[in-house]
From TrEMBL:
NCBIfam families: T6A_YeaZ. InterPro entries: ATPase_NBD (IPR043129), Gcp-like_dom (IPR000905), T6A_TsaB (IPR022496). The keyword Cytoplasm does not apply. One of its GO terms (biological process) is tRNA threonylcarbamoyladenosine modification. It comes from the Bacteria. GO terms for molecular function: transferase activity. One of its GO terms (cellular component) is cytosol. The keyword Amino-acid biosynthesis does not apply. Keywords: Transferase. This is tRNA (Adenosine(37)-N6)-threonylcarbamoyltransferase complex dimerization subunit type 1 TsaB. PANTHER family: TRNA N6-ADENOSINE THREONYLCARBAMOYLTRANSFERASE, TRNA THREONYLCARBAMOYLADENOSINE BIOSYNTHESIS PROTEIN TSAB. The gene is tsaB.
Amino acid sequence: MKTLAIDTSTQALSVALRDGDQVVTETTTNTKIKHSTQLLPLIDSMFKLVNWQPSDLDGVVVTEGPGSYTGLRIGVTAAKTLANTLSIPLFTLPTLMALAGNVQATTGPSLVIPFIDARRKTVFATVYLKEGYTFKPLFTTSHGLFTDFLDQVAAYLADHDDLQGLSLNFVSPDIEAFRSDIEAKFGEEAIIFPSESGLIHAGHLGALPLREVDVDTFIPNYAKLSEAEENWVAQNPEEAKADEGTYVERTN
């Protein structure tokens, strides 16, 4: 099965072509160049490099978020367009699971805590129980202050004796901005992976659990309102409450 895998959920951009279990080619960048200018030319050049045509694809894989609003829209739109045009399946997985998949060196069960900076000292974060190559989510993916999230993790661990003694593995592309908070809360119990481990590699996505989604109805998981929506909710609290927090007016 030949697949194109895309991740544009953070500052980094990663695109890969896979043939079954083999990564044929992968390009990962970590610059501030806009994904909108890089993604399509990169996909085109990778097809040419390996002498593939888009029609050779059997499926497309894309990370579903959370992450950068603009980045997610670019990657998901490209993936949906290709899948729809070629009439092939679209597969997704959570961005944080893709990030957690970088933690492979542990032996036995362990806890993996992936997170992404969401600005203003907030993060998108969750906790996985890792056993082999399986990742069981213990938390619903959340958005909030990182220090509050760490408090929730500590409280959860205190209430679950079966998790005592498991290693705490923190992985993030933004790890250095939050290192002091992790160390203050968990000290030497925390295993903090270097920032390069926070780069999502599209070539690895096919080795993680994927779910097939409907091309027409699939939307990214933003896990929070956009800044424009947050501003609108703040200015229109009664309307937001009546419309379940959305400022998009329904016309049907």
